[in-house]
Amino acid sequence: MHTAERVRRIKPSPSTAAAQRVRELKSQGLTIHDLTVGEPDFDTPDHVKAAAVRAIEAGETKYTPVNGTPALRAAITAKLRARHGLEYTDAQITVGGGAKQVIFLALMATLDEGDEVVVPAPYWVSYPDMVRANDGTPVIVDCPESDGFKLTPSRLRAALTDRTRWLVLNTPGNPTGAAYTPGELRALAEVLLDHPHIRVLTDEIYDEIWYDDGAGLSLAAVEPRLADRVFLTNGVSKTYAMTGWRIGYGVGPADLVTAVNTLQSQISSCPSSVSQAAAAAALTGPQDFVRDTVEVYRARRDTTVKLIDEIPQLSCTTPGGGFYLLVNCRAAIGQFTPAGDRIGTDEDFARHLLDREQVAVIHGSAYGAPGYFRISFATSTEVLTEACARIAAACAELTSSERPS
Ligand code: PLP
Description:
The chain has two domains: 5-43 and 289-396, Alpha-Beta Complex (Aspartate Aminotransferase, domain 1), CATH 3.90.1150.10; 46-284, Type I PLP-dependent aspartate aminotransferase-like (Major domain) (Aspartate Aminotransferase, domain 2, 3-Layer(aba) Sandwich), CATH 3.40.640.10. It has 14 helices and 13 strands. The chain has helices at 5-8, 14-27, 46-57, 70-84, 99-110, 126-133, 153-159, 182-193, 219-222, 254-267, 273-284, 288-309, 346-357, 381-396, and strands at residues 33-34, 93-96, 116-121, 137-142, 164-170, 199-203, 230-235, 248-251, 315-316, 324-328, 359-360, 362-363, 372-376. The strands form three sheets. It has a seven-stranded mixed sheet with strand order 2-8-7-6-5-3-4, sandwiched between helices. Helix 6 (126-133) links the parallel strand 3 (116-121) and strand 4. Helix 13 crosses helix 14. The protein is globular and about 65 Å long. It binds pyridoxal-5'-phosphate (PLP). Residues 38, 98-100, 124, 170, 174, 203, 205, 235, 237, 243, 248 line the site of pyridoxal-5'-phosphate. The site of pyridoxal-5'-phosphate (PLP) has 13 residues, from helix 5.
């Protein structure tokens, strides 16, 4: 079979591949302590499910407008007004099959061959390949742990060229949990104001899962002069435990939204009508689910950070949002397993955890973070505690020199 060049340029998402590997091992009867999961372990709230059932019974089972139902668009507008004080007209909103699809379509709508997209690393695995699939060139900007894994104005400035079309800004971030403060966003905005040809794609999918005071802020709200250049993307997957419903949205410049809608009209016509009814109920209904789950995540985060920090070869920066922890395992690299194998990379380290202790994590290189691995704490405290004990055991058996046989 002939496969198009754009497909050969990209690879399946490493997190999807890791999840598949865990499923295979489980189906072989193995007990896997799975810390790869990129979705809440909670069930979708009952009132959201009830809204979906009502939609089915009311016959809301047909195509909807390409850019989403009026009810969902109104719910999105109300959320952005209440949370960020941002105002959007109907022509500035599009709804798609997950934030992932909306981001992909925005890139598809704007990139020509050779156009550059600045992607701060560590990054969500999909950004670089989404750029490549759409003929663009990802410009990866390393954001070290010493900077809190955050993009600084000087690093941003150094990455910009005449071909830069987008900066992708994910806050709170996957896989780091790094959450930009208003001051940090303002400093980046100062650079962007000097470069009017660049748009910013903000990925705010974890915006409600935020542990510090001052609530997750949006670049468009922090710097209103950038508002007509920001394409803000978000969705209901993480906040409301609705990953399988596949609803995400994007708001921003009307010309871009029109282009995204044109693509969507040819790709999927519209997202699922029933899921849209559910998403509208999630956004407009009671929000105690969000408050309660954030408190659960916070407790899990604190437990996991403490357990990881007790392991001599490992350390981590406490995440400000999201439900991931990027763990520094550089001290283990160069060490040897009892079998005499050298841990040469973070991928070797992740394999060692799986082989010796049946703990599944995702190696940092998948996120542009060699020397790290990602833990998801969207799983029970028992699983986290057991997995951390096993990670400690796997580290304890590593030695600095090959044991004589
Ligand atoms: N953006 C980030 C940073 C994510 O981590 C994810 C999911 O893992 C998504 C977007 C995709 O969200 P959705 O389920 O709305 O497509």
